[in-house]
Structures are given as C-alpha cells and as structure tokens.
C-alpha cells in the first residue's frame, strides 16, 4: 500500500475539489492533493514546535561562574548546533546566538533588545514639540514639519515635511517631479526659499551633479513659439509684440547670450571654468534636443532658431579645447539634429535674408560637426545669394522693405561675411567667388550707413531708418580688418555694437583672432 510523503513546507491554501475534476489517485492525482497539502502543513507545524522546544532547551543565562553564558551553552550543545545566551533587559541586544564550533563559542547573531527599541523610540520625536509655535514649525520653503529624528541635544537631524519632502542634515531631499523639466524624478536641494538643486536624478538614469559656481541654464526649449517684432505695416516695431517676444524668447536668449559670453571668456582670456560651464550648458540643452522641434507652419520661430544656431555652432568651435571628450557624442548628435531642422525648414523660405541666415547656420554647424550635407547646402545658397546682388550693390527683394531697405541689406551682409570667414578657417576664399561680388554689397552697406541719403538716391527706396540696425553687425569687424583699404576708415575696427550674440559673441576679439 502506498503512502503520502509529507514535506516540511507551509501550504498557503488547500485545494477544493471541483465538480468537473477527474478524481484520480496516485502521487499527483487530485484525490490525494488535499491530504498532501494538509500533511505538509502538519509536518511544518511539528518542526516549528520542536524548534521552539529546542531553542528553549538551548537558552542559557549569564552567571557569576559563567559571565557570558558560553560555558554551560557549549557543554549542553553538540558541535555544529546553535545555542543562545540572554543578554538582560538593559542590553541593546536581546540574545547572542552562538554556534558550537568544535568546542568554541562562535557568535553568529545579536537580535535587537528592548533597550535598543526604547532608544530609537526616544529619538523619534514629534519635531513640533521641540520648537516654538509659528514659523519654527516650517522649513524655509514654508513646508510644515511633521516629525523626524533628533540628536542627544534635541536638535533635528532628519525630519519630514507634510508634502513628503525629507531633510537630512539641513539638505532638502526633494521628491516632487518638476513639471517644467521633462524626465526629472527628484533632486537634492538646499533649504532656501528657492530650493536650489545641487544633484538631480532623471528617469533615464542620468544623475546630474550641478556646477554650483555658475548659475543653472534655463529650462531647455524644444518647440519655440513666439511672434514677430513688427506690427501690421511690417516695418515698424510693435510694442506689444516686442513684450511678447521678450517673455517667450527669454530662456533662448539667456542661454544663447551666456554661452557666447562664457565661451569667449575661455577663448580670449583662458577662463577655463567659464568655458567648462558653457560646455555644460550646451550639454544640458543637448539632452533635451533643444530647438529641434518645428511648428506646423513656417514662421518666426524658425527664423529665431536659425539666428541662434549660428552662435551655437560657433560656440562649440570656441570650446574645442575645453569640452570633455565624453560630452562630445551627445553634443554632436544635438548639433546634427539642429542642423537637420534648419535645413528642412529652409526649403520653405522665400529667397531673402532668411535663407542667407539659415545657410550661415548650416555652415557654422558644419564647422562644428563636419557634416558634408550642411556644407553643400550652405555653399549652394551662398552662390545663390551672390547672384541676387545687383551691379550697384543692391538686392531687389530687400529694396521692397521701403524705409528698412538699408537695414535689411546690412542684415544680409553680416551672415554672408561670417560664411566667408568660416570658409577662411578651412583655407577657402569665398570672398573671391563670383568675381568678388560680395564687395559690391559691402560698398553699398558701408556707404549707405555713413550716408543714408546716398542710399536713398541710389535705391529710390525713400528715407531710410537705420536706428534699429542690430544683429548682423558681427560681420563688420571681420570685413574691416580683412579689407582695410576698401573700408578706408569709414567703419571702426572696434565698436560696442560689434558684440553680436547671434554671430559668436564678441566679434571685436573674434575678428582679431581670425583675421591675420
């Protein structure tokens, strides 16, 4: 007759035979399943009860003749078996467990005793009972403190606020997701009203130790949304639109202007810390593919992107000797994505200065990445732009701007010069292309700025408003230094407005470095 082989294991449930079950005997048959499970439980309970009796029989106590209890414990315990010695109510351990190791008592465990539990209980306090009413119950951020651990002097060393934030040694271990920064899980921050983070943890595994000696970059903007600066006439700045632009473009401008300044501090003054900080900012924006998104319709957001892309590419070049090698793959991936976005939207532009600026951005990004497609497209557009220059140095499409015609001739001249200068870095003379046609535009721009009435007569475009000439000046110091005989003193070599953060920052110094 067969029998059930019981196992020492606890069965969490006993099977209830269903009406549809096929009743079979044998070791795995359903008829014996319940008996097997109940037998296993019985065997497990029997073992537990015997263990309790065993431990009770193997529990020993300290005496004057046996100070640590091991003499009697070893005498009553076979080699290889365990015994325990009670430690007393005032001890932080309840028992010390020993194994008889060939006649030697070898300690193997010390379970916590009542004294340890009481000590923890005394130190786990309601922090609010140790402070005065009012602001003292709150952190510097205004969070209400609900409890924590105190040291022997009653000073809170670890405490929790009602919103779940934990403070350890005065450092805030924030646990809220920061909605404005995609992927940020939590951060370690200081205990100030601003809760400035110093260590960030992201959902992709990135741990970000922050550069405390420099401010943090603005939150990266992937899809830029803004408005144009002009009103309905198309030639006069609209105060409302300018206010909107100032707000919507602030993170982009802050980022762009700062990396231009810091990269210049490194390149011109050897400020390694500022250069490293600029590269750090670039890397942070690279992680979130900043400025690579596009809206459904071509517009001002695309233009604002390619204007800054010129500087971003030049900044990477300026930081070549300070950017860590480990950062470069992520940066180059971003610059390629940025160039792809500029290139794709450029196809939808009209043949005006926007294509010129987009081409300048592509050449700047080629200078950074070495991507041949960027070079080819920029070079083709440069030749197209030269073909738009009339024999008198004017550009037909820019003459249509009326009182802003000279302004936009200058706005086209700047990026064309910068493209020539980037090409010069690689031994190519773009100034000489198409019979040096760029010099016709240069003469019209320089002569026109020094004598707007002359330009009005030349172009028939009416009285010129050049009060708003701004970005684009960055090309002028290069041209002045490279062709002093042509300029003939009509433009200064150095000027405050030659600092152009769309074209590399301080172009006074950059032109001195490039033009030999």
TrEMBL record:
GO terms for molecular function: lyase activity. InterPro entries: Alginate_lyase_dom, Chondroitin_lyas. It comes from the Bacteria. Coiled coil: none annotated. The keyword rRNA processing does not apply. Keywords: Lyase, Signal. Residues 246-455 form the Alginate lyase domain. Gene3D superfamilies: Chondroitin AC/alginate lyase. One of its GO terms (cellular component) is periplasmic space. This is Alginate lyase family protein. It comes from Winslowiella arboricola. The lineage of its organism: Bacteria, Pseudomonadati, Pseudomonadota, Gammaproteobacteria, Enterobacterales.
């Amino acid at each position: 007759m067969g029998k059930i082989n019981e196992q020492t294991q606890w069965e969490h449930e006993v099977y209830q035979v269903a009406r549809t079950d096929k009743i079979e005997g044998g070791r795995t048959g359903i008829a014996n399943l319940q008996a097997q499970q109940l037998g296993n439980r019985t065997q497990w309970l029997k073992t537990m009860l015997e263990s309790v009796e065993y431990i009770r029989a193997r529990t020993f106590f300290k005496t004057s003749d046996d100070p640590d209890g091991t003499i009697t414990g070893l005498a009553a315990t076979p080699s290889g078996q365990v015994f325990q010695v009670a430690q007393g109510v005032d001890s932080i351990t309840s028992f010390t467990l020993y194994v008889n190791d060939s006649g030697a008592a070898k300690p193997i465990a010390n379970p916590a005793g009542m004294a340890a539990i009481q000590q923890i209980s005394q130190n786990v306090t309601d922090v609010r009972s140790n402070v005065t009413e009012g602001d003292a119950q709150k952190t510097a951020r205004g969070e209400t403190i609900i409890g924590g651990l105190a040291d022997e002097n009653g000073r809170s060393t670890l405490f929790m606020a009602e919103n779940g934030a934990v403070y350890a040694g005065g450092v805030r271990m924030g646990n809220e997701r920061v909605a404005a920064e995609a992927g940020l899980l939590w951060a370690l921050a200081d205990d100030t009203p601003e809760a400035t983070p110093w260590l960030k943890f992201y959902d992709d595994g990135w741990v970000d130790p922050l550069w405390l000696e420099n401010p943090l970059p603005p939150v990266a903007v992937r899809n830029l949304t803004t408005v144009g600066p002009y009103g309905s006439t198309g030639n006069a700045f609209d105060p409302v639109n300018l206010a909107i632009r100032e707000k919507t473009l602030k993170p982009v401008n802050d980022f762009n202007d700062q990396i231009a300044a810091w990269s210049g501090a490194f390149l011109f003054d050897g400020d390694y810390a500022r250069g490293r900080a600029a590269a750090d900012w670039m890397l942070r924006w690279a992680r979130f593919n900043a400025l690579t998104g596009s809206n459904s319709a071509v517009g001002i957001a695309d233009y604002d992107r390619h204007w800054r892309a010129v500087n971003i590419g030049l900044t990477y070049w300026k930081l070549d000797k300070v950017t860590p090698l480990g950062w470069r793959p992520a940066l180059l991936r971003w610059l390629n994505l940025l160039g792809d976005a500029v290139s794709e939207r450029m196809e939808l532009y009209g043949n005006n200065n926007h294509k010129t600026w987009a081409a300048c951005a592509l050449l700047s990004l080629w200078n950074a990445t070495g991507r041949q497609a960027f070079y080819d497209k920029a070079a083709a557009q440069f030749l197209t732009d030269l073909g738009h220059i009339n024999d008198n140095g004017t550009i037909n499409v820019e003459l249509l701007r009326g009182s802003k015609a000279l302004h936009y001739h200058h706005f086209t001249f700047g990026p064309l010069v910068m493209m020539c200068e980037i090409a010069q870095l690689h031994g190519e003379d773009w100034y000489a292309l198409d019979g040096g046609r760029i010099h016709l535009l240069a003469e019209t721009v320089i002569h026109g700025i020094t004598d707007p009435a002359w330009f009005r007569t030349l172009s028939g475009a009416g009285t010129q408003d050049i009060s708003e000439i701004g970005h684009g000046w960055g090309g002028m110091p290069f041209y002045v230094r490279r062709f002093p005989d042509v300029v003939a003193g009509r433009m200064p070599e150095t000027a405050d407005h030659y600092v152009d953060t769309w074209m590399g920052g301080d172009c006074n110094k950059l032109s001195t470095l490039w033009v030999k």
